[in-house]
């Protein structure tokens, strides 16, 4: 499905009914925006990983502008600020009230910014393996120098410089870097997953070569009023775990859960525990 909003066309998909039978009544489930990582990825990596949550929420998968099945456009418009405003426009387009927002990695950055700028429209926030500011770039480069193979350090040069030349080069980057992202890396499963994905090297270049070098949400995090779950991974090289701790400390009453045996690819490394923790967070009524 596609929504023509603002100056672009956003692709979204929906999993799960919004209204479900509950005894003699029909109960409305909350809607949850699922925001993918990258920038330069798409929502396909969430399928079927997030599908069990459709029992609790109606999942709205979103491809950020210029990525996945959303419309391409001027590369300079592929920014975090536009991703946030696109999400608010999509919420209005769908006629939704308060929503749950789940974001992993770059999707977590968008989720944090959206919840801070539109607190009245967010009931629950789930920010996973993500960061609040640009300083993660230097930290990740240091970790890569310590843990990465010479080949991994070589292919990552295009990431730090923001100069991927093609989607195929970006695909090769993820193939080589896979064992750093996931502690349970499976080359065959990774290849299958990557074949399903629609990558955008222009979007990742715009991020790592542009706005991610200066973005800073720290001053905005205290504005978040939604119930918040922050999830970090001890072995995450690209969004190091100390950033999850910082995010949780900055958001009022946020809950922090650390995954001790997971890398950045938390859905691959500890899927069952992730679903259980998120489901418990969504269904808990204090």
| Helix-strand sequence | EEEEEEHEHEHHHHHHEHEHH
Overall, the morphology is globular
Stated plainly, the CATH topology of the domain at 2-133 and 217-283 is called Rossmann fold
Radius of gyration: 18 Å
**Total count of strands:** 10
The CATH top-level class label of the domain at 2-133 and 217-283? Alpha Beta
Q: Regions with pLDDT < 50 over 5+ consecutive residues? A: none
Q: Helix share of residues?
A: 25-40%
- Record the strand order, biggest sheet: 1-2-6-5-7-8-9-10
Name given to the CATH architecture of the domain at 2-133 and 217-283: 3-Layer(aba) Sandwich
Tell me which oligomeric state these chains represent: single chain
Overview of the structural elements:
There is one protein chain. This protein has helices at 80-93, 106-117, 136-147, 150-155, 157-161, 167-181, 187-196, 201-208, 241-250, 266-269, 271-283, and strands at residues 2-5, 8-15, 19-22, 25-28, 31-35, 58-62, 99-104, 122-128, 227-233, 255-259. By secondary structure, it is of the alpha/beta class. The protein has a domain at 2-133 and 217-283: 3-Layer(aba) Sandwich (Rossmann fold). The strands form two sheets. The protein has an eight-stranded mixed beta sheet with strand order 1-2-6-5-7-8-9-10, with helices on both faces. It has a two-stranded antiparallel sheet with strand order 3-4. Helix 2 links the parallel strand 7 (99-104) and strand 8. The longest helix is centred in the middle third of the chain and has 15 residues, at 167-181. The model has no long low-confidence stretch (mean pLDDT 97).
């Amino acid at each position: 499905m596609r929504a023509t909003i603002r100056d672009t066309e956003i692709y979204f998909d929906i999993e799960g009914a919004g209204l479900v039978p509950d005894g003699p009544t029909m109960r409305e489930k909350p809607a949850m925006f699922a925001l993918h990582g990258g920038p330069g990825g798409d929502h396909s990596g969430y399928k079927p990983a997030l599908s069990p949550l459709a029992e609790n929420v109606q999942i709205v998968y979103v491809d950020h502008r210029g990525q996945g099945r959303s419309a391409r456009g001027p590369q300079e418009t592929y920014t975090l600020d536009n991703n946030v405003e696109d999400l608010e426009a999509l919420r209005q387009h769908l006629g939704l009230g308060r929503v749950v927002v789940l974001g992993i990695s770059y999707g977590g950055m968008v989720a944090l910014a959206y919840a801070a700028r539109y607190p009245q429209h967010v009931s629950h926030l789930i920010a996973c393996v993500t960061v609040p500011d640009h300083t993660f770039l230097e930290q990740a480069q240091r970790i890569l120098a310590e843990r990465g193979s010479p080949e991994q350090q070589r292919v990552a040069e295009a990431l730090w410089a923001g100069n991927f030349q093609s989607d195929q080069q970006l695909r090769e980057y993820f193939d080589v870097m896979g064992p750093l992202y996931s502690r349970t890396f499976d080359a065959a499963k990774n290849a299958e997953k990557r074949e399903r994905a629609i990558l955008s090297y222009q979007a990742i270049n715009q991020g790592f070569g542009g706005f991610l070098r200066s973005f800073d949400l720290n001053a905005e995090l205290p504005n978040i009023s939604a119930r918040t779950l922050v999830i970090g991974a001890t072995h995450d090289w690209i969004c190091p775990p100390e950033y999850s701790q910082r995010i949780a400390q900055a958001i009022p009453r946020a809950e922090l859960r650390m995954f001790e045996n997971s890398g950045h690819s938390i859905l691959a490394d500890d899927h069952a525990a992730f679903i259980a923790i998120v489901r418990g967070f969504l269904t808990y009524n204090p």
